[in-house]
Specification:
- This protein is mostly helical.
- The chain has 16 helices and no strands.
- Helix 3 (42-53) packs parallel to helix 6 (86-100).
- The chain starts with a helix and ends with a helix.
- Bound molecules: the ligand COc1ccc(-c2ccn(C[C@@H](O)CN3CCOCC3)n2)cc1OC1CCCC1 and zinc ion (ZN).
- The ligand COc1ccc(-c2ccn(C[C@@H](O)CN3CCOCC3)n2)cc1OC1CCCC1 is lined by residues 124-125, 128, 153-154, 157, 195, 197, 244-245, 247, 258-259, 262, 266, 283, 294-295, 298.
Length: 345
């Protein structure tokens, strides 16, 4: 029996190593499997792997043990929410890594910009309480008071990330010089704050402008001017924001698991609101929800408008991902019909 147990353990670790290796260049890795096989430490395993694969630790002379301690401390600060948890952070990190490899970004970003974008993705939801900014504002929470109702969660995630750097043995920025540290901090703050849904429309506007310029300046070999730091920062903000809203563009079985999770998180908020005699927020009433219809709306009015313009900027590498969105939408639409019948009884 002992031999059987050890053999099974060995096979699990081999399978885990293969899954982690696939995060290098695969869209839609099953991070729920990575979570199950890694003793619920997907973020630490995947972040260490990707940062090493990109040679970031060597470039900035960051000791592997320091990075391990930092990312483990961050992962431990993610709460066990149904959706906004360490698996979601790993998902956004891996999607951001994948899209930084798009050919249109070749020779565009510096190592520091890549480091900042992936760092921001890994920490962008740390200590998320599983409720929305609006809920925190409506309940006069300490966080809303602290951040004056402005991007409350997003501010909290960034502050906590930088505070974690001062935990014993966790300062992954100690080898950066003053200028690098200042630029890194500016980029991480702006990328995480740009994941606030209230900035969503601005992302679309900036991307439309950039695509327009690409279209007009027909010399568009590489549309992005590596000298334009502002444009590059806006692209990194949109890259992480797109990754944050990438669930409907993942293989259907993964997309459906994320949908179940976000709905359970929203329903728990609705339960809280009912118990506090607050008005139940939209989509948060578990007694009265149409999951497929709300995903159709999410895709048609939020996800597709953003990804449609993002895919135009990043063509042709985004096409396979847009195709997944299209096929998922068709499947969801087919379920709406059957879901209606179910409700009609
Ligand atoms: C798979 O389904 C969803 C997947 C994701 C989301 C979703 C909403 C907002 N976001 C992004 C924030 O979490 C931005 N965060 C906030 C906290 O600060 C950091 C940045 N993500 C909504 C989803 O569905 C909803 C339920 C029915 C329609 C809409
Ligand atoms: Zn997120």
């Amino acid at each position: 029996v002992e031999r059987l147990r050890l053999t099974r353990k060995l096979n699990m670790n081999i399978f885990l190593a293969q899954l982690i290796e696939s995060t290098n260049d695969t869209w839609g890795v099953d991070l729920f499997e990575v979570d199950a096989l890694s003793n619920h430490r997907p973020l630490t395993h995947v972040a260490l792997h990707l940062f090493k694969q990109r040679n970031i630790l060597k470039q900035f002379q960051i000791r592997e043990l320091t990075f391990f301690k930092f990312i483990s401390a961050i992962e431990a600060k993610y709460r066990n929410n149904p959706y906004h948890n360490n698996i979601h952070a790993t998902d956004v990190l891996q999607a951001s890594h994948h899209m930084l490899n798009f050919s249109v970004f070749k020779n565009v970003f510096t190592e520091l910009e890549v480091f900042a974008a992936l760092f921001a993705a890994a920490v962008h939801d740390v200590d998320h309480p599983g409720v929305t900014n609006q809920y925190l504002i409506n309940t006069n929470s300490d966080l809303a008071i602290l951040y004056n109702d402005e991007s409350v969660l997003e501010n909290h995630h960034v502050t906590l990330a930088f505070q974690t750097l001062s935990t014993e043995g966790c300062d992954v920025l100690s080898t950066l010089n003053r200028k690098q540290h200042q630029m890194f901090r500016k980029m991480v703050i702006s990328v995480v704050l740009a994941t606030d849904m209230s900035k969503h429309i601005q992302h679309i506007g900036h991307l439309k402008t950039m695509v327009e310029i690409r279209r007009l300046s027909s010399s568009a070999s590489s549309i992005i001017d590596p000298e334009n730091a502002e444009d590059k920062l806006q692209i990194l903000q949109s890259l992480v924001h797109c990754s944050d809203l990438s669930n409907p563009l993942k293989p259907l079985n993964l997309y459906l698991q994320w949908t179940d999770r976000i709905m359970e998180e929203f329903f728990r908020q609705g339960d809280l609101e009912k118990s506090l005699n607050l008005e139940v927020s939209p989509l948060c009433d578990r007694e009265n929800s149409n999951i497929c219809k709300s995903q159709m709306g999410f895709i048609d009015y939020v996800v597709h408008p953003l990804w449609e313009i993002w895919s135009r900027l990043t063509q042709p590498d985004c096409q396979p991902i847009m195709d997944i969105l299209e096929s998922n939408r068709v499947w969801i639409a087919s379920q709406v019909l059957t879901e209606d019948d179910k409700h009609d009884g």
